[in-house]
Amino acid sequence: MTSEVTVPLLDLRAQYATIKAQIDKAIQGVLETQRFIMGPEVSSLEEEIASYCDARFAIGCASGSDAVLLAMMALDIGPRDEVICPTYTFFATAGSIARLGAVPVFADIDPETYNVDLGSVRQAASRCKRLKAIMPVHLYGQTVDMSAYLALGEELGVPIVEDAAQAIGSRDSDGKLAGSRGVIGCFSFFPSKNIGAYGDAGILTTNDADLAERLSILRLHGSKPKYYHKIIGLNSRLDALQAAILRVKLRHIAAWHEGRRENAEAYDGAFAAAGAATSAVPLTAGGFPLRTPQPPSGQATHIYNQYVIRVPGPMRDELRQHLQDQRIGTEIYYPVPLHMQECFAYLGYAQGDLGESESAARETLALPIYPELTDQQLAHVTDTIVAYIGEHACATKA
Ligand SMILES: Cc1ncc(COP(=O)(O)O)c(C=O)c1O
């Protein structure tokens, strides 16, 4: 019955179908005004995001990559300065540091949450001579323990910048929102995010009025007033058309987060019934060779920008191929940790230096989790995975 079902990793057309009239009207509104650069749509979105993220200020920019770059620039990170960040993240986190001539100092992850591990950050800090900031990433939509990071930042005398690109609206263990506690929060509106633009867009949050001012100048080539350049910035404005689209989407974000959570629960339930444990139990402990995400505890919430399972390394790639054959899209976030990337060879890391991230890169697989997934699609994914792993695990034992 489910054999003809197709499940793309993400289906943005399904989302557009549900909000088409509102989106088309918003785009038409911008076309009528012909105000494409900055203007009221951008400032309204900035106010709405600041309020949504519980931050005093929000400053739009051209992408999440520019958000992390602008954050580093606003903090005056420069040549030979050191910034600690996870190795298991999207390239932009470390790219923003390296582009300024600064040194990304990589820390390993906690295999339970896939977020950067505080102990590893401490170790990295002990090797630093010019540590200027720490940039944890709230990976997959779940925040790090911000209280612990803020305490460490205070102890070391450095700011904590939140790379919250994947985590808009998620709450930490104190119930506080991503991007509301670090000196700057960086968000991406890449189309695959829980709230995605129709192109590139990003935003920064801060509670510091001076930093807000500096960021808003930096994104305009450092000029204020126009043509008078106080500092060297870049052209990184958030497009008015994207702002209008994002304002519509922001009205739906709570329902979309909820839809993703319900899908995650459906996956968790089906996989647990087959014998899977959560990522709190290492694969080496045995049992059914599948681990589901460890759900957040206490006041923390997960927005499931990604739902990532874990299976033994050799099986992961075969499973992925099998899912593709069954018309199920998946992705690997991320196949190569940043300390092993060719462009960072000059930093001198070796295989085995950050072992948890290296294992995660071999064993993790992101499944379709978008809120418009139907029950039939969810069942096709879980049935296909459970059947494949069941057979494969038996074959391995035999
Ligand atoms: C953790 C992280 N940081 C930064 C970025 C960069 O965002 P963008 O793709 O909008 O440039 C992303 C985007 O995927 C991300 O996941």
Give a quick summary of the entry.
The model has no long low-confidence stretch (mean pLDDT 96). Helix content is 41%, strand content 11%. The protein has twelve helices and eleven strands.
Structure explained in plain terms:
By secondary structure, the chain is an alpha/beta fold. It is built from 12 helices and 11 strands. The chain is globular, with a radius of gyration of 21 Å. The mean pLDDT is 96. Residues 63-65, 68, 89-90, 92-93, 137, 163, 165-166, 188, 190, 200, 202 line the site of pyridoxal-5'-phosphate (PLP). Pyridoxal-5'-phosphate binds at residues 63-65, 68, 89-90, 92-93, 137, 163, 165-166, 188, 190, 200, 202.
Q: Which key phrases capture this entry?
A:
single chain, 11 strands, 12 helices, four-stranded mixed sheet, alpha/beta, 11% strand, three-stranded parallel sheet, 398 residues, 2 domains, globular, binds pyridoxal-5'-phosphate
- Structural class by sheet pairing and helices: alpha/beta
The CATH fourth-level homologous superfamily of the largest domain: Type I PLP-dependent aspartate aminotransferase-like (Major domain)
CATH class of the largest domain: Alpha Beta
Count of extended strands: 11
Summed up, the domain count is 2
- The helicity comes to 40-55%
- For the termini, the CA-CA separation is 30 Å
Mean pLDDT: 96
The CATH architecture classification of the largest domain is: 3-Layer(aba) Sandwich
Strand order of the largest sheet: 1-7-6-5
Order of helices and strands, N to C? HHEHEHEHEHEEEHHHEEEHHEH
| Approximate shape | globular
The CATH topology name of the largest domain reads: Aspartate Aminotransferase, domain 2
Strand content: 5-15%
Rg value: 21 Å
Ligand species: pyridoxal-5'-phosphate
State the helix count. Answer: 12
Q: Biggest β-sheet: count, sense, barrel?
A: 4 strands, mixed
Unreliable runs, pLDDT <50, ≥5 residues? none
